[in-house]
Amino acid sequence: MPRALRPLPxxxxxxxxxxxxxxxxxxxxxxSAESGLSTFRDKGGIWSKYDYRxxxxxxxxxxxxxxxxxxxxxxxxxxxxxxxxxxxxxxARLEHEHPxxxxxxxxxxxxxxxxxxxxxxxxxxxxxxxALCASCGTRHAWAKDIVVDTRCPACGKAGxxxxxxxxxxxxxxxxxxxxxxxxxxxxxxxxxxxGNVYPAAGFVAEARINGxxxxxxxxxPSEGAxxxxxxxxxxxxxxxxxxxxxxLTG
Length: 250
Ligand SMILES: [Zn+2]
Prior knowledge:
Elements: H1 10-17, E1 22-27, H2 29-33, H3 52-55, H4 58-63, H5 65-79, H6 86-97, E2 101-106, H7 112-116, E3 121-123, E4 126-133, E5 139-141, E6 161-165, H8 175-184, E7 187-191, H9 203-209, E8 213-218, E9 230-233, H10 236-249
Parallel strand pairs: 1-2, 1-7, 2-3, 7-8, 8-9
Antiparallel strand pairs: 4-5, 4-6
Helix pairs in contact: 6-10, 8-9
The chain binds zinc ion (ZN).
The site of zinc ion has 8 residues, from loops.
């Protein structure tokens, strides 16, 4: 009697058939580094020059709002001079050409995914080109500097305007929507992230529990590299377009 064949796992079937139905892509600073935006955690990155407790926490903002606003004004000004790179463009192509759903969850506060043409996008750490009024909770598109005296266009109050970015100690945005996507994912890609910042670092485990194939694309093995079924290392502008090509052409 031949033994009954065990059914293939869903990630393997999808991979063989090249027809993932629900791709979740997590992106981080490594993706935008080649566009000229500094990373935060790498050697020589922004956190080697600034103490995050001074410039990226609610306590830091309460202590010295001018310092915090100036820090983000610099980030916002740098943003005006960068353009999406080949990796951003490849991910936008994936969204438009892949027959299944593709959602990007980005930890980046830049808007390079949008500039490349991505539309199905979640900014879990907020956006540098938006301001948030702590007095009335209104969000505003914002391309200029913010200073302590900047008034909220909605409520008119000064002193509460801040960049609409998630600081250390604050809850990332859209966690419920992200969890829904992770539970539906059959392919999870992690691109350019250091793998040591929760909750994003835990997404690979969530995706695996739900049966997704998991792939890390990063310059070098991240701290969480061993959690992935597959890992591809190299510059994002090289490995991401090549991987997207592989997905689209089977
Ligand atoms: Zn307001």
